[in-house]
Amino acid sequence: MAICVFDIYPDGTTKPADDTALTGDGTYRWWHFDLNDPALTEWLPEHLPAIPAGALIQPETRPRCDAYENGLMLNLRGINLNAGQPADQMVSVRMWVDDDVVITVRMRKVFALEDIRQGIEAGAAPATPAAFVEALVSRLTTRVQEEVMEIAKLAEYYEADLDDDTTPPPKDLPATRRRVIRLRRYLEPQRTALTKLAAVDLPLMPEPDGLRLRELANRTTLAVEELDALRDRLLTVQDDHDLFVARTQARHGYRLSVAAGVFLPLGFLTGLFGVNIGGMPGLDNPMAFAWLCLSMAALALVMLLILKLTRWL
């Protein structure tokens, strides 16, 4: 039923559990489930109170930290490292943490949990439930910071391109802006949840672990503040490119307006002298065409002078 179940002992040794009891004979027992497991909806109400059991099987979640009796209900988000899926489509982990049990439920693979699982199998298990939570939060936060730093490098690249007017707007700029928006959507409530977690007053979260969790909450706050700055920087880059395009279009429109102002009276003259009716002057004069051309050139010069005097040029 579960993806994995481990009993963790005080001396750091671990063993896979071979029964369905909620707790074992170790310091604590870790249950790890897939939300799509149909047996989960039957197992949870049999072993947990209704409120934490319901929180673990909610299809949609947001980061939260709530104490319930002597345990904690936690929902956290992490960077999506699954192949073929966008990193900013963050994966969620639902948790119930008590003195002698840790239950985690995921919908998609959470690599931070897989790291902890590999460590447990290698004999490097978190010694207490509080240490388990700290190890998970640390891994989630580190991956978030790495993602934010990657976006920051892209922002620097976009800003450097602004120095060259011939560089077109980057095609992935809108996608990068959406990445920032989606990340911040989840990290802002996660910052609140981690701050609340660091301040929780329960026996299962002793003071040393609280201090380390406060540091992790601070790192998450820094990531959120960096995303705020990145959002503004990327918006500025977009505005600069839009302004450059608007200026280019205005310059082209200005040139076309000047050309139209010069050639409008010339077009009137050519249209007037192009009518094929009797009485047109110069029909029998071989120099009429030359005089017309000279007159049009003089008119063009007059129009340019007028545009200059009116400060169009």
Please specify the SSE layout and strand pairing.
Blueprint: E1 4-8, E2 14-16, E3 28-34, H1 40-47, H2 50-56, E4 64-68, E5 71-78, E6 91-97, E7 101-106, H3 111-121, H4 129-161, H5 173-198, H6 207-273, H7 288-309
Parallel strand pairs: 3-7
Antiparallel strand pairs: 1-2, 1-3, 4-5, 5-6, 6-7
Total individual domains = 2
Please describe the biggest sheet, giving its number of strands, its sense, and whether it closes into a barrel: 7 strands, mixed
| Secondary-structure-derived class | alpha+beta
Estimated radius of gyration = 35 Å
Name the CATH superfamily assignment of the largest domain.
CorA soluble domain-like
> How far apart lie the N and C ends?
80 Å
CATH structural class of the largest domain: Alpha Beta
CATH topology grouping of the largest domain: Beta Polymerase, domain 2
Helical run tally: 7
Give the overall shape.
rod-shaped
Strand order of the largest sheet: 2-1-3-7-6-5-4
Instruction: Output the helix-strand order.
Output: EEEHHEEEEHHHHH
Strand content: 5-15%
Low-confidence stretches: none
Specify the helix fraction band.
55-70%
Residue-averaged pLDDT: 87
Number of strands: 7
Architecture per CATH nomenclature, i.e. the level-2 architecture of the largest domain: 2-Layer Sandwich
Concise summary:
With 313 residues, this protein is α+β, with helices and mostly antiparallel strands. The protein has helices at 40-47, 50-56, 111-121, 129-161, 173-198, 207-273, 288-309, and strands at residues 4-8, 14-16, 28-34, 64-68, 71-78, 91-97, 101-106. A hairpin with a 5-residue loop joins β1 and β2 (14-16).
